[in-house]
From TrEMBL:
<comment type="pathway">
    <text>Protein modification; protein lipoylation via endogenous pathway; protein N(6)-(lipoyl)lysine from octanoyl-[acyl-carrier-protein]: step 2/2.</text>
</comment>
<protein>
    <recommendedName>
        <fullName>Lipoyl synthase</fullName>
        <ecNumber>2.8.1.8</ecNumber>
    </recommendedName>
</protein>
<keyword id="KW-0004">4Fe-4S</keyword>
<feature type="binding site">
    <location>
        <position position="75"/>
    </location>
    <ligand>
        <name>[4Fe-4S] cluster 2</name>
    </ligand>
</feature>
<feature type="binding site">
    <location>
        <position position="82"/>
    </location>
    <ligand>
        <name>[4Fe-4S] cluster 2</name>
    </ligand>
</feature>
<keyword id="KW-0411">Iron-sulfur</keyword>
<keyword id="KW-0808">Transferase</keyword>
<feature type="domain" description="Radical SAM core">
    <location>
        <begin position="61"/>
        <end position="275"/>
    </location>
</feature>
<dbReference type="InterPro" id="IPR007197">
    <property type="entry name" value="rSAM"/>
</dbReference>
<keyword id="KW-0479">Metal-binding</keyword>
<dbReference type="InterPro" id="IPR006638">
    <property type="entry name" value="Elp3/MiaA/NifB-like_rSAM"/>
</dbReference>
<dbReference type="InterPro" id="IPR058240">
    <property type="entry name" value="rSAM_sf"/>
</dbReference>
<keyword id="KW-0408">Iron</keyword>
<feature type="binding site">
    <location>
        <position position="79"/>
    </location>
    <ligand>
        <name>[4Fe-4S] cluster 2</name>
    </ligand>
</feature>
<feature type="binding site">
    <location>
        <position position="60"/>
    </location>
    <ligand>
        <name>[4Fe-4S] cluster 1</name>
    </ligand>
</feature>
<dbReference type="Pfam" id="PF04055">
    <property type="entry name" value="Radical_SAM"/>
</dbReference>
<dbReference type="InterPro" id="IPR003698">
    <property type="entry name" value="Lipoyl_synth"/>
</dbReference>
Length: 297
């Protein structure tokens, strides 16, 4: 049996933060989606797409894209926006790269997105598992393209070098929010450190990507500054989506951003030097990820 770690599913935002109509999604349909759905059910596979209740699951699966989480489901961080359990992980599965690679081959995934929890307790931040997962996936599925959405390595640049050396086409690291909100949203993260991680990834010759959640209380000027900072540090691709509160224990939605403002931010990002911007209320990190491998670097 092939199994992958799961994370806790998202729940709806509280009634006082009622979602507007533009956040409604269509039920997934189509033969490509149905085929992946069948394989997932038959082999008891777990993906971030379904366990995270991603609104774009049907569209992404229909395009042959799926997202997997490695290195367990216990995170050493306690970000106020994220529903993943926080604590001290109890084990490290060194066989996980093989199982993930086999799952991707079994599902016939055309583009795989790999992500993980933070493993700050590990000396190499889990870099060896990252590297082997990419390498073994490429060995079993040489035509499958890969994006790795990697965590903050806490300035362990040797670990970063290992994480991004497996042959993946895109390396992503999410900023999540603007600089002024870091202490509230990412209390164990540092805005400048994440920018440096992106810069070092770009200097290594990689296609770089990041994501920001909107609706946490950021201003337009702060968004413009964030985009300028990302361009200055070598970012190629940016995703912008609406933050949705996972549970009542997490930070509340400050504002539901209108689709027109998302469109404005897309145009601003391109004008300021980003090469590709995905921007919309339902956009998530892996939305249209299969398109991002073709962005020139």
């Amino acid at each position: 049996m092939l199994t992958l770690p799961i994370i806790q599913p998202e729940t709806a935002a509280p009634a006082k933060a009622r979602k507007p109509d533009w956040l409604r999604v269509k039920l997934p349909v189509g033969p490509a989606y149905a085929n992946v759905r069948r394989l997932v059910d038959e082999h008891k596979l777990h993906t971030i797409c379904e366990s995270g209740n991603c609104p774009n699951m049907g569209e992404c699966w229909g395009a042959g894209t799926a997202t997997f989480m490695i290195l367990g489901n216990i995170c050493t961080r306690s970000c106020s926006f994220c529903a993943v359990a926080t604590g001290r992980p109890s084990e490290l599965d060194l066989d996980e790269p093989r199982r993930v690679a086999e799952a991707i081959q079994l599902m016939g995934v055309k583009h795989a997105v790999l992500t993980s929890v933070n493993r700050d307790e590990l000396k190499d931040r889990g870099a060896s598992v990252w590297y082997e997962t990419v390498v073994q996936t490429k060995q079993l599925s040489p035509t499958t393209t890969i994006e790795t959405l990697i965590p903050d390595v806490k300035a362990n640049w040797a670990a970063l070098d290992t994480m991004i050396a497996g042959g993946q086409e895109v390396v992503s690291h999410n900023m999540e929010t603007v600089g002024s909100l870091y202490r509230l949203v990412r209390p164990q993260g540092k805005y400048d450190r994440s920018l440096e991680q992106i810069q070092r990834t770009k200097q290594a010759g990689k296609r770089t990507k990041s994501g920001i959640m909107l609706g946490l209380g950021e201003t337009k000027d702060e968004m413009y500054q964030a985009m300028d900072d990302l361009v200055a540090h070598g970012l190629d691709i940016l995703t912008l989506g609406q933050y949705l509160q996972p549970t009542k224990r997490h930070i509340e939605v400050a504002e539901f951003i209108h689709p027109d403002l998302f469109a404005h931010y897309r145009e601003e990002g391109l004008r300021r030097g980003l090469k590709y911007v995905e921007s919309g209320p339902l956009v998530r990190s892996s939305y249209h990820a299969e398109r991002h491998v073709n962005v020139p670097i």
